[in-house]
DNA sequence: GCATTAACCACAG
DNA sequence: CTGTGGTTAATGC
């Protein structure tokens, strides 16, 4: 149960962890736990105390706010870190993470993570790169949400799932209509209507959550970004 | 004014 | 949880 993890032999290291030497990887193994989550499981929750950096080795999660007006902030696919902004210099999680598919997660003590940043330049640099990518992605999303109408926002989201998450034109949507609405700032009714209309125009094929993108170019035209 | 967009509500699968 | 229809408020032309 309390056996240490061997991070030296991990084949799904983050690009930052690849910069660690063997000694540091041993230290990392002693200061983290790996936990498997099932689809639908809560990984961490908004408002709770947090002393860990969360590393999503494998799987897909949604980062979201709690409450009646729940917003989906981001959909993330492993490998990548999840909780850096909500853990560094913060005691309380500012958002929740829920598994959309089965996930392998490593919880890493914030202290060892911080010490790596101090003692290993390459590690720190790779963390900055990841945070920069994340910010750019959010800027894009921000523009899409501000400049696009419902068609454009949904098109953007469908392309995002297709290109960034599943890397195929044919996949199952990981979200309900309601959640999709929360993701692109609209209502479940609008999502239903737009999906039905795109289907009737043969831009996509939608059956329940089964989605096939027939004309990605058409979706790109609907979205300004 | 008139048309369009999208939210809100209600009700039926 | 979804799909659809009616209603309505806001916005653009």
Structure in words:
A 4-stranded antiparallel β-sheet has the order 1-8-3-6. Helix 3 (110-119) crosses helix 4 (121-147) and helix 6 packs across helix 7 (188-200). The protein is elongated, with a radius of gyration of 19 Å. The model has no long low-confidence stretch (mean pLDDT 92). The protein folds into 2 domains: 17-141, Sandwich (Jelly Rolls), CATH 2.60.120.10; 148-222, Winged helix-like DNA-binding domain superfamily/Winged helix DNA-binding domain (Arc Repressor Mutant, subunit A). The chain has 225 residues and is an alpha+beta fold. It has 8 helices and 11 strands. The structure holds a DNA duplex (13 and 13 nucleotides).
What share of residues are in beta strands? 15-25%
Structural class: alpha+beta
Helix content percent band: 40-55%
CATH architecture of the largest domain: Sandwich
Describe the global form. Answer: elongated
Distance between the termini: 48 Å
> Which stretches of 5+ consecutive residues score pLDDT under 50?
none
Short summary:
The chain contains eight helices and eleven strands. The protein has 225 residues and is of the alpha+beta class. It folds into two domains: 125 residues, Sandwich (Jelly Rolls), CATH 2.60.120.10; 75 residues, Arc Repressor Mutant, subunit A.
